Model the fold of this input.
Amino acid sequence: MGTSYNPSSSALSRRRFLANIARAAGGAGALGLGMGLFARQAQSLPAQALRPPGVKSESDFLAACVRCGLCVRDCPYPTLSLADIGSDVPVGTPFFVARRAPCEMCDDIPCVKACPTGALDPNLTNIDDADMGLAVLVDEETCLNFQGLRCDVCERVCPLIGEAITLERLHNMRTGKHAIFIPTVHSDKCTGCGKCERACVLETAAIRVFPRHLAKGRIGAHYRLGWEEKAKKGESLVPGIIDMPDRLPEGGI
Amino acid sequence: MSTETQSVKTYPGRDAVLSKGWMAAHKWLILRRVSQFVILGLFLVGPLLGTWIVKGNLTSSLTLGVLPLSDPFVLLQSALSGHVLASTALTGAAIVLIFYAIVGGRAYCSFVCPMNVVTDAALWVAKRLNLPKGWQPSRDTRFWLLGAVLVSAPLTGVMAWELLNPVTMLHRGLVYGGSFVWTVALAIFIFDLVLSRRGWCGHLCPMGAFYGLVGRASVARVSAVKRRDCNDCMDCFAVCPEPHVITPALRGADNGVGPVILSGDCTNCGRCIDVCAKDVFRFDVRFRNAAPEGEGRDDTAISSDRHAA
Done:
């Protein structure tokens, strides 16, 4: 071809070349867009899937974890596993479900040491500083301690007993003469290891570990607690204000 | 073309089997399969027998507790999504890059990647069933996909491709025992079998495209050193997964082009060496690429048809 009709031959090949480029670029663009949407969707990790220690945020983790599974291999317990294809957890990433197998809080943190990319932060050297999530007593209606019983199991198994979970005493209004020991999680100490959720004696745990952003409220930035401000200043914030006597119910203390 | 070989030909490589024997005519194919399965086996010894030789998977591994290896393609995505990589991974990727810069970039595809077994199986079945080739997009499509993969990482801030990458999914599933790993293998098998012959490895895979870029500078290359002996039987083109790479080297004598296959697309699989009854090809280094004077064959005047595929 091309001997008798030379000009069109080069125009044709140029047209085909441009069409090929356009098609390939369009395909690549569509794939890129699809990947972007898929990536966005995949970042919504299910609440019961917890990351190993040393993960700062889910999006940082999905940029850093190459899904090699070396953390899974070096975990001495059956805690960590890699997400299967079709799972709600982004494919191939390590996670654990506290109710099945919690983090056992190894002192030497072998999973972090095994990570080749730094997706599990190597600066985490004390497992008590880990932040895998935050335990929340989600159901006061079934928690045995809330019924006035002395289950206490979540507090007993807590690796930071007396710090991350304490038992706060309240008056038992039902019996009128007993105490209720409320399991209370302290967010500055809880590592989210999930041993409390694992050990909860109920058929479905009343205390559960959630990612911190789901578990924690935040007070308004403008909000001031009067008694704290007063303590800070050492005196009343409004000088000369008259402190009226508190009115208590009849027969009150 | 010599008519007597044409008339009795039933499959590519038959002449080589008759002249060299079956083993010699399948040497590199057998070595490739051994390599693919031994490497997979090394990863499986630990989880199956409890004796750890290689821990991890192809994206990052630790051999005998000392040698870190990492996939530079996956690590590049990680770096582009904004992660500052730790030194272990960078060391591992450097070792891998140097290794493939020596043995040939896409030697990864032909000697290591588990997906190659799947796509080769699809091709084997497709040829026996005489299925149509189907969709044959440009072989450069993979570079566009590679671009899309690398651009999507900084745009999404995560390794978006690794949520979809069937290659890493397959190997991870094989080593860690995912219950749905077969779906990935099946999807690529069906794609290659009925939709697009050699579609995945030959046209689309961005991972192969990445290693192909490494291969553009790699040392070990197939060379048509005895191209003067070529009898145009076309067997090498028939078995080659990237047949366009052969033409310049095999038929470039008249244009002063050297005998070494320089294209990064070449997977260094060595199948052309196997099937050539005239022993035209062998592994060589890319630097021995001088086109000797007066080497051109007097019986041919073949245009450099770059679209021989």
